[in-house]
Structure formats: structure tokens, C-alpha cells
């Protein structure tokens, strides 16, 4: 680019992963043996890296490429942008490689499609005068069609219809170069960023002629406000005084932004498009340009169209050039996820942020994306995927909630680091790595205190996911593996007596006991401090003790009577999809008896567990072993497995929360095939922090025990209050 070099490269990363494997139990007394074997293995995963260098340090950038990225097989390096011409000879000489120049616009659009598809909080609207400058948008499952307005030296307006179909539909010679060139002539300021700095301090009304200067107030007949610009630089024709550099820069910025905004609106209207993304050197994350473009679009579209910006706008060309070079590997066939541990955050670049003086880095300095093992798609049962928002509370917006949860995660950090180190007693550097994890996550939390929008919308889910990413970065793949192994073993020993007790009850009494068991199981959550304190200090705390902790009915959210009525009066459900939460008592004594009852009613069951570990949540591989053991004790489960009426699947997630718009493709296929008509989501992370308001096309149950006193208070209850939400979609 004109001032920055953006580098994209692919690497393989060695990660430690926790594996569980069933012991061969033939002829062995397994009463006192562990339930399964845990091993830590090396796994190689693919990662995309994006790094930004200033062009003044192009030699440093090339040294980095030469030292780390070039091997004997590398013959060609893909490049795009103005610098691909300017630095071609230097690159070829220094690296001994042929520079293969790619078309700028093709790369830009390929990069744009990639980030829109893979980064949930990529797109934002800019609101200068609200508490949070950046208002992130929900990614629509269908990203096409859209308008891309690229403001470099001039303006290019491109209509993008599919992955490979786009056309240049218009543009203007009045763009960023015009602002820079005219600005330099007017203010004698040669640097673009300094010019913007001047504009941010200026008052354009000193230079511009307003409607009220012409008509003495608003022009009512045409509905024009008195403060509207009637003529850019209009006052300079009549005034004898000198104008300040700041005021002229501000007037110029408004003039060019308004021109671009009107042009973009007209093209959007002409082509019937409602999504306009702005990018290019002129934008580059600068609040002052984002604000003027936003105002202009809002004015000319009468509020019907929103100006949208991209978090990683500066990297689009580099990503596109990389994708062109990697076409034989088809990166688009995979899903990718942002690695929060290795990515730097979106900074506020507002020049008027005082006295905090935040770092002015524009957008990202580094971005890392990990290739996910399986493609992720929407749950087919979402009522409207385009309006689905997983998270219940937006901490970017809610300052009080943000302060509480950031403090909560800070206070829990020492305990998490201690647990991580203790999970690897045979490792000589476990303590050192745990301290590095603690430091890294602490720094992330401090960044989020200052810039809550750094990684998109800040939520409890993003805080939990960032912690998991940091743990993985320092090779703590599953700090709770031994805890889960032990709790699964203990719970299995109680399974038969729990089933016998349930089977001895009358039908109605049994339904309530099953729900109470499901809720009691949900108490066993090592992610909740109130519970982990009890589990640490009272090892004998068990299923019956958990039941006694539960709130008596009526519950905080209580539609149990409607659920019971549905079971009594309605036909059996065809198929139930259950998202399981914790290992041990939760899945074995809470979920499985409930599954067994559904199966007995003639309902097929899909049991979905996390693909990878998070806290003490049950993983798919653990659920296979647990189910095998239960089947050996229980004929109902055994025959359901044999007849494929009970199916175990993975969610594609490694989070304590649940995003129904990013689920394993295999799970989505199964949901459709089996005509699923009931979804059960259990646990605080999956049913309260996320999906509390999720609207589905079918019946749903959301169950959880609130194990956090602040959250309970927020929802109008006390700790261990119960949420039992039975929802039927409107016909």
C-alpha cells in the first residue's frame, strides 16, 4: 500500500491436545480403575498470520520474510497494491523470488468476502457521540450482494454479487488524494495523518456557508435544517480574515466526505443494495473520517442506509493476494476462527481522547486465524439467522455489567493459573507457562477495560473464549481433564440407583424428579466461583446436596406447568436435540435419565457435546466413553444406540457458551434429516449468557441454575435461582 505493507502468511502450529481413550476392560476388575485413560498429544493445526509494517521499515519486513518464511521450494511471492510496483525490484533482489502481481480489486474483494464469512464481529457502524464508538453488526448468513466503496487516492465503487462475480459500477476522482493534495496546498501540512489531526480540531462553520447564513434559519419549504452546509468554503469569498488551518482542513474533509457519501447512496439506490462497506487509505480506522462518512450516508439516504466499516479493512488486499496464491489448497472450504491470544485489538484512534492518550495504531497490528477442523454453519432451526444474536448482555454497551465481569475474571485468574499448573504435575515448566498465561490474559483484560470494542462486541462469551485461547497458547489444553475423569467415574457408580429411584415413581412425579435432576446436575460447574469453592472444600458434596440448594417453585423463570401439559396432551416429539453442559453428575445423573425418558416416549435424541475442552464441560470424546458405560448398565440406552435412535455428535465448539450460528455442519445435517422438533439447552453459559432470547422454529427448553449472585440479582433472584423456560414458536 501507500504507507503500510501488510503481510499474510500460513504456518503450521504444534499444539498440545488432551485425548481420552477407553481402557481395555476385558477380564479386569474395573471397580477401582479410572474410567478412561487421558493422554496429551501433539497436534498440528493450520494458522493464518497477518502482520502490518510501515513502508519506512520495508527492509525489516523483507528480512522477516527471508529469515522465517522463504524455503528452497518458494519461487514466487504474491503481491498487490501500489507497492507491488514500487518495491518489485527490491523484493526480487532481496528475496531472490519472482514477484507475481495480482489485481488490486480482485484481491480486495476476495479478502473482504473472507473476513465477512469467518469473523462474526467484523462489521461495525461508527457512532462518535455514544458511549461506545463502535457498534458491531450481526453477520448475515448470506453476505451478498453488497457495495464496496474503496476510498484511496480516488474512489472506486464496486458491486459484489457472488464469490467471483463483481463489477466496477462507478467512482470519482475526488477522494483521499484530493483531501491530501488540497489540504497540503491550503495548510502546508504534508502528512495525511497530521492533516486529519488538524481537521479533528477544526470548526467547519467558520469557513462553510450554512443554510441559515443564506436564509436566516432553516429552509422550511424544502425541509432543510439551518445548520446544513449550503456551500463548502462559501464564507471565504466574502470574509477578509485569515482562516485557521484546522478550520480549512475540517471544511475540506466535510466537502469530500459528503460528496463520496452522496455518490455511494445514489449507486446503492440505483442497484437496490442496502449494505455499503467503506474501506481504503482514507478510512483506515480514523474516527474523524468514519464520522463524516456516517453522517453523509445517513443524511442522503434519510436514515435508510447505514455506513459500515470493517475491523480488518487494512488487511483485505493482503488476504486476497494470499488466497489467490493458495487456491490449490482451497482455504474457503474450511471455517476459520480468530485466535484472540495472538491478535491485537481495534484501538480508538480518536485524536480528542484526552487525557488517556491511547495508542494511535489505526486498525490491527496483528491478526491470527486458526483453521477449524470442521466447517461451521447455522443451526437450521434458528427462526431468523440474520437477526440471531447469541449473547444476552452486550458488555460494550452496559458499563456496570462490564466493570463487574472484568473484575470477576481478574479475581478468578490466579485460581485458573493454579489449576492449569496443577493439571500437569510431571511438567518441569508448568509453573512458568501458567505464569505466562496469567500475564497474557491479565494484559488482555486491561486492554478491554480501556477499549471494550477491541475484539468486536464484548460479552461474557468472548471473555471466556479469550481465556481458553490463552490457555491453549501456553499448552494447557484441558486443565480440568483429571477432575472430569474422577467426577465421571463417581457419577457412573450412582447411575443405576438414580434410575431405580426414578422408575419407582408415578408418571407425573417422575417428570418433576427428572427436571429437578437435570437442574441439580447443572450446579456442578467449576466455572462458577460459588460452586468451585464448595467443591474444593466439601469433596462429599453430591447429587442430593445439589438438589437441596435449588430454589423452591415457583422458580425465577417457570413454565414447568406448560411443559408438563405438553407432555400429557401432545404427541411425542419426533427428535430432540440436547446441548449438554458439564461432565460428571450433570451429564450422567441429570441429562441421561432425561434422555432415557424421551427415548421411552418414542422420541429420538441427538446429544451434542463440545468438540474441544472448556472448563469442566463434557467433550464429545468423553461422552462416547460415558455413553458406552451407561449402555452396558441400561437396556433402554443400549437398544437406542443400536437402533440409532440415540446419536452422539460434536458441536464444533470449544467454548463454555453456545453460538447457534457456528455449529458443526454434520450436526446441522442430522438435525434436518431427523426432523428435529425440540431443542434443549442446559447450563448458565449456553442458556443464560447466550441464547436466553434466541428464537427457534420449534419448541425449546432452556434450563439453568444461576450460580453467580450478581447475575441472579440482575435477573431479580438469588443465587441458585432456577430458570426453566419452555418456549413454543408463534404459528
TrEMBL record:
What region holds the Damage-control phosphatase ARMT1-like metal-binding domain? 409-717
Q: Which InterPro entries match?
A: ARMT-1-like_metal-bd_sf, ARMT1-like_metal-bd, At2g17340_3_helix_bundle, ATPase_NBD, PanK_long, Type_II_PanK
Cofactor(s) for this UniProt protein: Mn(2+); Ni(2+)
Q: What keywords appear on the UniProt entry? A: Acetylation, ATP-binding, Coenzyme A biosynthesis, Cytoplasm, Hydrolase, Kinase, Manganese, Metal-binding, Nickel, Nitration, Nucleotide-binding, Phosphoprotein, Transferase
Compartments it resides in: Cytoplasm
Classification via Pfam families: ARMT1-like_dom, Fumble
* GO MF annotation list: ATP binding; hydrolase activity; metal ion binding; pantothenate kinase activity
Q: Which GO terms describe its biological process?
A: coenzyme A biosynthetic process
Q: Which residues form a coiled coil?
A: none
Q: Does the keyword Iron apply?
A: no
Q: Give the main location.
A: cytoplasm
Q: Name one GO cellular component term.
A: nucleus
Q: Which domain of life is it from?
A: Eukaryota
Q: Which reaction does it catalyse?
A: (R)-4'-phospho-S-sulfopantetheine + H2O = (R)-S-sulfopantetheine + phosphate; (R)-4'-phosphopantetheine sulfonate + H2O = (R)-pantetheine sulfonate + phosphate; (R)-4'-phosphopantetheine + H2O = (R)-pantetheine + phosphate
Q: Does the keyword Manganese apply?
A: yes
Concerning its family, UniProt says: In the N-terminal section; belongs to the type II pantothenate kinase family.
The record describes the protein's role as: Phosphatase which shows a preference for 4'-phosphopantetheine and its oxidatively damaged forms (sulfonate or S-sulfonate), providing strong indirect evidence that the phosphatase activity pre-empts damage in the coenzyme A (CoA) pathway. Hydrolyzing excess 4'-phosphopantetheine could constitute a directed overflow mechanism to prevent its oxidation to the S-sulfonate, sulfonate, or other forms. Hydrolyzing 4'-phosphopantetheine sulfonate or S-sulfonate would forestall their conversion to inactive forms of CoA and acyl carrier protein.
Subunit field text: Homodimer. Interacts with PKM.
Name the record gives this protein: 4'-phosphopantetheine phosphatase
